[in-house]
Amino acid sequence: MGVPLASESRLASLRGRRPTLATLCSHSSLQIFHGARSEGYSTLGLCVGAPPRFYDAFPLARPDRFLSVPSVKELPGVAERLRAEGAVIVPHGSFVEYVGAQTFAEIDVPVFGNRAVLAWESDRRKERDWLELAGVSMPKRYEDASEVDGPVIVKYYGAKGGKGFYLAKNREALEDFHPTGPYVIQEYVLGTRYYMHFFYSPLSDRGYRVGHGSLELLGMDRRDEANIDELYKLGAQEELLRAGIRPTFVVTGNVPVVLRESLLPQAFDVAARIVERSIDLFGGMVGPFCVEGIMTEELDFKVFEISTRIVAGTNLFISGSPYSDLVAPGLSTGRRIAQEIRRGESEGRLNEILS
Ligand code: ATP
Question: pTM for this structure?
Answer without folding.
Answer: 0.94
